[in-house]
Amino acid sequence: MILYLVEIQVTLAGHSQLNASVAASVAILSSLENAVINLPIIWRAVKDKAVVKRFTIELITIVFSGLAVIWADQSFALSDHILQLLKS
Predict the structure, then answer these.
(1) Among 47, 52, 74, 83, which one is most buried in terms of CB atoms within 10 A?
(2) Cα distances (angstroms) measured from residue 30 to each of 9, 23, 25, 52, 65
(3) Residue 16 DSSP code
(4) Which region, left, alpha or beta, applies to residue 46 given φ > 0 means left and ψ of -120 to 50 means alpha?
């Protein structure tokens, strides 16, 4: 379902019916959401505390990196510039 929504956003952005920055942000947020949903499953399933701690730290790093990319894209309209380069 998430991949379908991302595909719709990208298609709308490609046809200039949706801002490319918004489509990129939706794609990144849906990927981050998918990753965060797995966190409670890992906490319950894995008994090794060191593995759980490492996984949690890595996942939090990924989430903050994704949010930083969204912030940069929204601040500097990077997706719009890339889309224009690809069209020309």
Answers:
(1) 83
(2) 11, 11, 8, 23, 14
(3) T
(4) beta
Q: Token pair of 36, please?
A: 């965060």
The helix-helix angle for 49-76 and 20-45 (nearest 10°) equals 170
What is the C-alpha separation between 8 and 48, in angstroms, rounded?
A: 40
Going by the DSSP 8-state scheme, the letter that residue 48 receives in this structure is -
Answer for the pair 36, 58: CB distance below 8 angstroms, yes or no: no
DSSP state of 19: -
DSSP summary character for residue 39: H
Output the tens digit of pLDDT for each of the chain's 88 residues: 455 555 555 565 555 666 767 777 877 888 888 888 888 998 999 999 999 999 999 999 999 998 998 888 888 877 778 778 888 7
pTM of the model: 0.66
